[in-house]
Amino acid sequence: MFAKPFRVKSNTAIKGSDRRKLKADLSAAFPLLSADELSELVPNKEELNVLKSYAHKGDAVTVYVLHKNPVFFEVDKKLFPTVYVLWRYPALLPAFKTWPPVLQKLTGGADLMLPGVVVPSCGLPDVKQGDSCAVTLVNNRAPVAVGTAAVSTEQMHCLGMKGRGVCILHTYMDYLWAFGDKSGPPSLPDAENEAHGENGEECEISDKEEEEVDKCVEEQHSPEETVTDQAQSCFEELSLVEQDEEKGEKNNEKEEETQDEQKTPQEVMDAMLLQCFLHALKSKVKKSELPLLTSTFLRNHMFSCCPSGKQLDIKKSSYKKLSKFLQTMEKRYNIVRVKELTKGVESIVEVDWKNPELRSFSFPEDTDVESTPLPDGEEGEIPYHPPEITTLYSVSARLEPLFLNANKRKGATLHPAEVRSIVTEYVKDNELVDENNKNYVTINPTLCDCLLEKSEYQEVVSLKWDDLFSRTLGRMQECYQAVFPGQPPIVKKGHIEPIDITVASRGSNKKVTLMKNLEVYGLDPAVVASVLQHRVQASSVLQPVPGAKDRVLVQIQGNQIQQVGKLLLDHYQIPRKYIQGLEKAPKGGKKK
């Protein structure tokens, strides 16, 4: 579940009622925890944060964080401890033992298969299907993974210890672990292994088994085929689930590559043209769009179906021109009918959706040229999500006396709701609500120094609640918090800079579109420029922004504000209020 970065939606301090509810839920879910241990995990006065997040597959997960370490997470209203908690209380969950090399696969997202489970002399722990359980390694009781039992213990024996054993949710070294202090597991000797130490034979056998496993891991990384086969067979015994699938995919890729190498570049481009043509007709073009200009069909539909990492270029094919390619498609396959509706301009007027060639076409998996860029530059693993941006207010030196009772010093950042709550608490604690009119607050010396101008000291004796709050926020330093998926919140002073889109003139009435501040929202300017280049079929250039470090300006030919707006709003889901310059888009209309 946490093998890939997760997206944080909100990170807030837990309320008193929620803290009590969490304690009660933990007591019911983990009866082995004593009252003192529960108080250590959910202290009454120490700060405990609630993290609302989404895993990379879209699952909603609630994470509870204590002392900057995740301690519990909740999925489908079921609580699970993290490895940080299990290292303190290793007996909290029933545990299945496996070999150290298997941990690498579990961290990568694989489940624990039964052939990889080491059965101790006392037998497997008694679990039912769906029960929470932990995974430990040989010679160490410190758990390294948490999950749910795929089948009951009885069924495991009935299946001959084959098949899926534990569905893994969280592991040591995954992104949830990385959200904490990244400490390693303690060394907790296994009681069974200590007992075996008295019996030399049993100890020797287990050591030999470990050596064999280590050999398998070393051999797996060797490039020779025979060694790879040995490693694969050994890892099948150790539960490595996806080995066969990955090998099959690699073999298919190798076969495709060798076939492509045998073809000439012209034949490869012809095949790609046909693939993009069929893909566009089957997935992009709607009957309501007909008649469709052939140039629009190429630009808006065929280019978007081009495999990632490749570029569609008709001039490099045997057809040389789009019109010739479409004529060939019409005569050979009889899928489309092209007609010149106006002089010199061709349009697709008819598509045979029942054509066997079109119906039998299946979509290739690598056809997303507009794959979403990632903030950290990785390619295509995780879809881009815009940051969660929240306005905050920082306590200034002048207002510090007003926030002292809430233990908020100069520089502390607060949400507007927290500011209102603290100010309201201060007014009530000091009994400043006007007895005659409860809509007003009486000004005491502290409020006078914090909120009033010098000219108002003798004149203003009370303020309305709204005026009180607005004056407080007005005298605080405005900040913003940006939360990117799977990363800790970033807090900066001032307003967040919007993505700025402008149009400039170059030379003899030529226009270019300029974009800056993309980096603020986690967008890679190079990737955005490449996507726009494919969309509008115009050249793009990256230029450094004068006076700004690590900032790049994207320049693309022509007035492309409409296309830029569609990309940012629809594709990247950036809120409109964070984009500046969309109003400069050319307005369509009939020329008189």
Automatic annotation (TrEMBL):
It comes from the Eukaryota. One of its GO terms (biological process) is formation of translation preinitiation complex. Residues 186-265, 364-383 are annotated as: Disordered. Residues 214-224 have a biased composition (Basic and acidic residues). Gene3D superfamilies: 3.10.400.20, SUI1-like domain. One of its GO terms (molecular function) is translation initiation factor activity. Keywords: Acetylation, Cytoplasm, Initiation factor, Phosphoprotein, Protein biosynthesis. CDD domains: eIF2D_C, eIF2D_N, PUA_eIF2d-like. It is found in: Cytoplasm. One of its GO terms (cellular component) is cytoplasm. Residues 200-213 have a biased composition (Acidic residues). PROSITE patterns: PUA, SUI1, SWIB_MDM2. Residues 388-475 form the DM2 domain. Residues 499-572 form the SUI1 domain. Belongs to the eIF2D family. Translation initiation factor that is able to deliver tRNA to the P-site of the eukaryotic ribosome in a GTP-independent manner. The binding of Met-tRNA(I) occurs after the AUG codon finds its position in the P-site of 40S ribosomes, the situation that takes place during initiation complex formation on some specific RNAs. Its activity in tRNA binding with 40S subunits does not require the presence of the aminoacyl moiety. Possesses the unique ability to deliver non-Met (elongator) tRNAs into the P-site of the 40S subunit. This is Eukaryotic translation initiation factor 2D. It comes from Haplochromis burtoni (Burton's mouthbrooder).
